[in-house]
Specification:
By secondary structure, the protein is mainly α. The chain has a single domain, classed as Four Helix Bundle (Hemerythrin (Met), subunit A), CATH 1.20.120.450. The chain is 52% helix and 10% strand. The protein is built from five helices and three strands, in the order αααβαββα. α4 links the parallel β1 and β2. α1 runs antiparallel to α4, α2 runs parallel beside α4 and α3 packs antiparallel against α5. The protein is globular, with a radius of gyration of 17 Å. The termini are far apart.
C-alpha cells in the first residue's frame, strides 16, 4: 500500500470526527473567544476546516512562500457552508492522497516568507506535522471553546461526558 493511501485512511477516519465537531459549532456565538489573544469561534472553526485543504500545498508544491501568496481567510457564517467547505476539502485531499507517488514524500518542502526561511524538511514530516498534527491541535482547541459555551461534544474516540451512556 502506498504512503498516500495509508495517510488517506487516517484522513478519512479523522475527517468524520472533525465533521461531527463542526456540526455543533453555534454560529450565534461566532464572535466568542476565551481570551483576547484567542481566535474567535468562527475563525477557529474555519481554520480547522481550512487545514484539510493543506495537502495540496504540502504535497503538490515544494515551497510555501507567504510573501508570494495572496491568502485571504474564507469567511464562513453558518454551519451548512462550513460543512460544505469541509466536505469539498476532504474530497480534494482524497484525490491527492490517492494519486501521489511515494517518492514525493521524500522531497524537501520549505516554508518561507520572502527571503526568510522558516524551515525545510521532508514532505513526509510536513504532512504529519502540518496536515495532521496541526489539525488535531486546533480541533482540540475547538472542543475547549465548545465546552466553555456548554455545547454538548460529540464522541470522536468513544463517548464523551455529554453522552447519555456514560
Amino acid at each position: 500500500m502506498s504512503i498516500g493511501k495509508i495517510l488517506l485512511a487516517e484522513v478519512l477516519q479523522e475527517s468524520a470526527s472533525t465533521r461531527k465537531l463542526l456540526e455543533v459549532v453555534p454560529f450565534d456565538k461566532a464572535d466568542f473567544k476565551p481570551h483576547e489573544k484567542s481566535m474567535t469561534l468562527k475563525r477557529l472553526a474555519t481554520h480547522v476546516t481550512e487545514i484539510t485543504g493543506w495537502w495540496k500545498e504540502c504535497l503538490l508544491q515544494d515551497v510555501l512562500d507567504f510573501a508570494a501568496g495572496d491568502f485571504t481567510p474564507k469567511v464562513i457564517n453558518n454551519t451548512d457552508d462550513l460543512l460544505a467547505m469541509h466536505d469539498d476539502l476532504v474530497a480534494k485531499a482524497t484525490k491527492i492522497l490517492s494519486e501521489v507517488a511515494d517518492e514525493e514524500f521524500a522531497k524537501p518542502w520549505t516554508m518561507k516568507n520572502g527571503e526568510q526561511i522558516y524551515f525545510t524538511m521532508p514532505k513526509a514530516a510536513v504532512t504529519r506535522s502540518w496536515c495532521l498534527n496541526h489539525l488535531y491541535h486546533h480541533r482540540g482547541q475547538l472542543t475547549v471553546y465548545l465546552r466553555l459555551l456548554d455545547v454538548k461534544l460529540p464522541g470522536m474516540y468513544g463517548p464523551t461526558a455529554d453522552d447519555q451512556t456514560m
